[in-house]
Write a structure and sequence with these properties.
Elements: H1 4-14, H2 23-32, H3 35-42, E1 45-51, E2 55-61, E3 66-70, E4 78-85, E5 93-97, E6 115-118, H4 119-125, E7 128-131, H5 155-161
Helix pairs in contact: 2-4
């Protein structure tokens, strides 16, 4: 089940969103204040998000605005579009439109079918962010295997399980820890 936007909100509610910001939170807020910087940071990256009720989700944000999503209980990669949307209330937002997605978090006239999450809340919740399509999602239609529900599967483990060599660069998500 597609829960990109609700993951960020749920984890925020369960974590320290009301607490004084740490260094990672400050970095995310600075990035979110500048949509062009946010787009440059996220373009061409693989993001891994984990939520206990759902499990692990991997997103490849291609430079041409395409997004490819692998999520639990799916045999096929889901494809759609991504944009960075400025917002007066939230700073920059990462917005995804993936056919088959459910319940958009933000429903306004311009982005009615898009799921959007505030970058300053999303980035600290991303476990892993790597430059490039490290899992090869853009070239996949059928996934080599289904992701298990409710389990946290690191990118390096997923690479081993599909028989690919790691070769991961630095995890850009650590800047937001």
């Amino acid at each position: 089940m597609f829960r990109f936007a609700t993951i960020a909100v749920m984890l925020c509610a369960l974590s320290a969103c009301g607490a004084p910001p740490g260094e990672g939170d400050k970095r995310a807020a600075t990035l979110a204040a500048h949509p062009a910087l946010t787009a440059a940071f996220l373009t061409g990256t693989t993001l891994k998000l984990f939520s206990p009720p759902v499990g692990t989700e991997y997103y490849y944000l291609a430079p041409d605005g395409r997004v490819v999503l692998a999520q639990p209980r799916r045999d096929r990669a889901m494809r759609g579009r991504w944009i960075i949307r400025p917002s007066n209330s939230f700073g920059a937002q990462l917005c995804l439109f993936i056919p088959g997605a459910r319940e958009p978090l933000i429903a306004d006239d311009a982005h009615r079918e898009w799921n959007c999450a505030s970058v300053d809340r999303l980035l600290p919740q991303a476990d892993e962010i790597y430059d490039g399509d490290v899992l090869g999602l853009a070239g996949m239609t059928a996934l080599p295997r289904q992701l298990p529900p409710r389990l946290n599967v690191p990118v390096a483990q997923a690479l081993r399980e599909i028989g690919r060599t790691s070769g991961l660069g630095p995890n850009k998500a650590v800047a937001f820890d």
